[in-house]
Structures are given as C-alpha cells and as structure tokens.
C-alpha cells in the first residue's frame, strides 16, 4: 500500500534584517517529495497495518523481531510488514560462532542480543515491536531481550499518527513539532 | 421489532400456508467467503511482477575467492580449540562470556556482511533510487567517521546523524590491496528542491590512490547535509567506485565551494551509465539526517537563500455528497461539514473577540467551566455546543 509522501511548502522563512543578496526562491517547487521509504515510518505518519485485534501474533507493526530457535543455532530477524526480513543475526554466522563456546546456551543468547542490538543501531532501526508478555521472565530469551534493550533498542513502536479533522474533539500533539 | 413480531404471529397462525423466509436488510454481496479471494490473495495478484521483465542486475565486484578446504580446516581447528578451552567453558557456563564486538564486526564485513548490507540497503531503497534495476555487494570494507569536537560519529548503514555533526568532511578509510584507483561520491537522493528524480552531490573525490583520500583529486567540495524543515529524514549515500584506469572528470569539476544548488544537481544513474566500462561500484555506506535549528543560519549565510519550511500534506478527508434530507443526523454538525471552514472559523473568532477588551488583560479561565448556569429554555443541541465551547472541544480549537 503506497502512502503519498508529499510535503507542501508552508512558509519561506526570511531573516529579519537580511541583506539584498538573496537568490530568488521562485525556483523552489511548492511540493517536495522525500523518496526515503523509511521516512514516513520514522515520522510516525506512515501506513501501519492494523490487522484484527484477536490476531496472534498481531500484524500491527512496521518492524518486528522474530526469534527462531533451532536444534543447534539461534537466529534473530528484524521483519518489516512489507519487505520481510531486513536484518538478521545468528549464532550460525562464523563471526559470532568463532568466539562462542556453544551456539545455543545462555551465553549464546546474551551475545546474540548484543550483536543484534549493535546491528540494529548501525541500520538506524531503534524501535522494534515485540510481544514481551509471551516470554518467560527468567528464561534465556528474557536475557536476550535485556541485552537488546541495553544496546539502546526500544522494544515498542509508537502508534501511527492519524491526521485530525476540524470536527475532531481533541488536537493531539504532532510528533514532528515536539523539539527534543 | 413490531413488524418482525407481526410476521411471526402471521406465520404461526396460518399453518396451512407454506412459510416464506424473508431476511430484511440483509444482502450477501459478492461471492461467499472461501470461494472469493482474500485481501492477501488480491494484493499478491495485484503486486505480481513478471520475473522475465522485472529482474535486477548485479553490477558490483565478484565475491573474493577463498579456498574451501583451507577455509573449513581453519574453522574446524578454531572450534576444536574453543571446545578444549576450560576457561571459555567456565565463562560460558557462568554467563560471563562476552564476545569482542569489534572483532565480530570485522569478521562480519569479510563474511556475510556484504549480503546483509545489500538487504538493508534495499530496505532503504538505495539501489532503486540510485541505480534503478541494478544492485551490488559492498565487498570492499569502507570505514567512514565524522569528527566533531573530539567525538567520532561513524557512518554505517542507515544510522541517524545531525547535520551539525556532519558539518566538516569525514575521515574515510578502505582496503586497497592492489593499488588501483578509487572514486568516492556522497549524494542525497531525497533533498532536491525542484526535481525529485534528481540528487544533490555533496562530495566527489576521484582518482584516489592508496587507502585514504589525502592524495585524491577533489572534483566537488564537501557540503554539509541541509534537509529542509518538515521534510523528515534524508538519506546521504557514500558510494565507492573502483576505477580501471586514471579517469578525466573535468566535465563534473566544480570550482571553489560550489554553493549554487543548481550546479550540484546530479544523477548517479546517468553518471554510472556514462562511465560503466571504467568504474565498478565496490562499497556502500549511508546515514540519515533531519533538520536542526542551526540550518537556518546555513541557508541564509552559506546558500544565500531563504529557508523553506514544509509540512506533510495529509490527504483530504472523504466527505460524501450532501443529501437533501439526511436522516438521523444532527442538523448543525451535518451542515457544518458542507460549509466553508474559513467562514466557521471566522464566526468563532468574532464571538471570541466580542468578549475581549482591547486594553484590559483577558479574563482568567474558569476553574469549573461546566458549573455555569445555562437557561433551561436553550435547546439541547445548543447546550451541547455551549459545553463544547467551554471545554474547548471540537471546532473551537481551530482558532485557539
């Protein structure tokens, strides 16, 4: 589903006592198109599927985390709702396996969490949805998630911002107007 | 309800007449579920692309050749060594085994890294917007870091940086074993102010011998990122090309700092098409940047232009055609949807200005706005409107 990515020019800002050497701003088009496919998702206005609320696992995410535990290895993938697998880390990769004693013990889970967190930060994916309630509190997966959070990944995605119309009761804050 | 009961009575009373089942207000539209296609099936059919026509071409370097027997032997030896290491076993058992991230990253770059980088770059639409139907693997490890106030800001595969952090040109390092020449280009495929199919070139260094840019020939000087306000995150892509021979880039050469944006207009696809016999993309790295307040000064002082400010253009809401006699709809709310919103706002504003004295401060907001008397003769719809005004709900927010 293609969301439109138009940005309409609101104002052309002028410095108050600006000298006369201004090149003409007439050559700026009124409509600006940012082609970055991840931009609207980062601004929280991109399309996010809702799915049915009774679906398990739900479909309400931009990026989510999936963990596949096989007989010998652990593989963690970051999935996008449209593009499928976009990032992965596994203990079967030589770069991880080389420094591990076993590829499926608790230490492997902890170290895989660190590796995946590092890769997510490198790829600019800092918010990833994951159903934490489905995980046992003191298990290996909980340790994996803890390492991921320590690396700086939020395991919850913000809600999609829906536009407000004049007849709406409230005016929620626009995410892009909040200054850090 | 009464009609349904009447039907039921009629039916039970007249036994000799065969019953006729009529389901009022129920229509089965289209084919029943199970036979009709689901949304998922319809979408896959809609988005199907014929592989005979839509296919991607690899334009990159071939993967490095490694001897398989030697490679497996080395790996097996390392695994056996690890398994016999009692310290490692103890660390692993006590959950204190911490792998070295730097080493992992370096190994990753030399093994599966290039394939993972391609996956994430496709997710960010890099190849689609720079090279059209082509892709490549980054087999040459590229290390880029901006240095600002003694802090390093590395560039990986989509991490976010602020334009202030990328104000001056970064330190670039890559592996160059066979003394061939390289070209490095930094472009922004999202930032063009007039033509969204084009890019702005931010940096162009060509004929680079060795593994640092010091001896390269600068074709276009470095320009910091300047994403305009309200346009969100822009991609800034470093592409490293391997050259066959020394090339002449005089037609791309820009004199001085080149602060005229028209001169910086660039198209990677056109550039690559022209030189594809002599250059091969070897590596890729990109970051994302969004607007910061300091860019206002940059637009005014450096680019010598007014700063454009944008806002996302949401699609207009769907309002269905007005009816002559709308049933079961509140008349005031219904009519308001078909009026000029500016006129409605004007009425709210005039009402507000009526109570405002030009020289006195505005009255304090009431602590309990709904605890005010409303005349009992006031109709209920108007009461609701008064309450909405007092509570600042709905259309009054348009002028607040």
Report on this structure:
The complex is a heterodimer of chains A (180) and B (400). With 180 residues, chain A is of the alpha+beta class. Chain A has a domain at 48-150: Ribosomal protein S11/S14 (Nucleotidyltransferase, domain 5, 2-Layer Sandwich). Chain A is 20% helix and 18% strand. Chain A has a 3-stranded antiparallel sheet. In chain A, strands 1-2 form a two-stranded antiparallel ribbon. Chain A starts with 5 loop residues before the first strand and ends in a 30-residue tail after the last helix. Chain B has helices at 2-13, 39-46, 68-83, 86-93, 101-110, 113-123, 126-131, 268-275, 295-302, 331-337, 341-354, 380-391, and strands at 57-58, 134-135, 142-148, 151-155, 157-160, 171-174, 182-188, 199-208, 217-220, 234-243, 265-266, 279-289, 307-312. Chain B folds into 3 domains: 3-46, no CATH class; 118-302, PEBP-like (Phosphatidylethanolamine-binding Protein, Alpha-Beta Complex); 331-398, no CATH class. In chain B, strands 5, 7, 8, 9, 10, 11 and 12 form a 7-stranded mixed sheet that branches. In chain B, strands 4-3-6 form a 3-stranded antiparallel sheet, with no helix packed on it. Chain B is extended. Residues 4-14 of chain B have low confidence and may be disordered. The longest helix of chain B is centred in the N-terminal third of the chain and has 16 residues, at 68-83. The two termini of chain B are 47 Å apart. At the A-B interface, strand 1, strand 2, helix 1, strand 5 and helix 2 of A face helix 3, helix 4, helix 5, helix 6 and strand 5 of B. Strand 1 of chain A pairs antiparallel with strand 13 of chain B, so a sheet runs across the interface.
């Amino acid at each position: 589903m293609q969301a439109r990515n138009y940005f309409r020019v609101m104002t052309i800002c002028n410095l108050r006592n600006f000298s006369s050497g201004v090149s003409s701003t007439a050559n700026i088009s009124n409509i600006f198109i940012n082609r970055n496919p991840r931009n609207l998702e980062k601004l929280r206005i991109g399309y996010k599927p809702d799915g049915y609320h009774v679906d398990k696992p739900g479909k309400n995410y931009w990026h989510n985390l999936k963990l596949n535990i096989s007989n010998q290895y652990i593989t963690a993938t970051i999935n996008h709702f449209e593009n499928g697998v976009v990032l992965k880390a596994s203990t079967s990769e030589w770069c991880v396996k080389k420094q591990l004693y076993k590829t499926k013990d608790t230490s492997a889970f902890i170290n895989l969490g660190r590796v995946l967190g590092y890769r997510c930060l490198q790829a600019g994916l800092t918010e990833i949805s994951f159903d934490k309630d489905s995980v046992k509190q003191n298990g290996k997966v909980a340790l994996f998630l803890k390492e991921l959070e320590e690396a700086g990944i939020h395991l919850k995605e913000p809600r999609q911002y829906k536009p407000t119309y004049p007849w709406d009761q409230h005016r929620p804050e626009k995410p892009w107007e909040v200054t850090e | 309800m009464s009609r349904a009961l009447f039907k039921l009575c009629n039916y039970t009373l007249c036994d000799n007449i065969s019953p006729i089942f009529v389901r009022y207000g129920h229509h089965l539209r289209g084919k029943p579920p199970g036979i009709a296609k689901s949304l998922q099936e319809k979408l896959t059919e809609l988005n199907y692309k014929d592989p005979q026509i839509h296919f991607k071409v690899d334009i990159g370097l071939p993967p490095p050749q490694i001897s398989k027997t030697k490679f497996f032997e080395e790996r097996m030896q390392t695994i056996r060594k690890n398994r016999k290491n009692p310290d490692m076993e103890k660390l692993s058992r006590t959950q204190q085994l911490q792998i070295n991230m730097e080493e992992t990253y370096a190994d990753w770059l030399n093994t599966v890294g290039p394939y993972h980088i391609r996956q994430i770059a496709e997710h960010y639409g890099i190849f689609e917007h720079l090279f059209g139907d082509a892709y490549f693997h980054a087999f040459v490890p590229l290390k880029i870091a901006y240095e600002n106030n003694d802090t390093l800001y590395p560039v990986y595969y989509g991490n976010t940086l602020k334009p202030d952090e990328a104000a001056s040109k970064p330190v670039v390092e890559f592996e160059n074993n066979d003394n061939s020449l390289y070209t490095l280009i930094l472009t922004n495929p999202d930032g063009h102010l007039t033509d969204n199919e084009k890019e702005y070139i931010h940096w162009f260094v060509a004929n680079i011998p060795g593994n640092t840019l010091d001896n390269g020939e600068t074709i276009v000087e470095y320009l910091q990122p300047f994403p305009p306000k309200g346009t969100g995150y822009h991609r800034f892509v470093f592409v490293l090309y391997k050259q066959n021979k020394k090339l002449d880039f005089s037609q791309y050469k820009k004199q001085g700092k080149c602060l005229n944006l028209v001169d910086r207009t660039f198209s990677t696809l056109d550039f690559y098409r022209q030189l594809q016999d002599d250059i091969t993309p070897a590596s890729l790295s990109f970051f994302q940047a969004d607007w910061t307040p300091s860019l206002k000064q940059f637009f005014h002082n450096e680019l010598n232009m007014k700063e454009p400010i944008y806002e996302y253009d949401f699609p207009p809401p769907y309002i269905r055609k007005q009816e002559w006699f709308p049933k079961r709809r509140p008349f005031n709310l219904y009519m308001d949807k078909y009026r000029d919103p500016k006129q409605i706002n004007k009425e709210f504003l005039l009402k507000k200005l009526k109570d405002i004295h030009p020289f006195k401060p505005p009255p304090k907001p009431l602590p309990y706005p709904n605890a005010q008397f409303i005349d009992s003769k006031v109709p209920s719809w108007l009461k609701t409107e008064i309450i909405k005004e007092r509570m600042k709900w709905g259309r009054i927010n348009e002028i607040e």
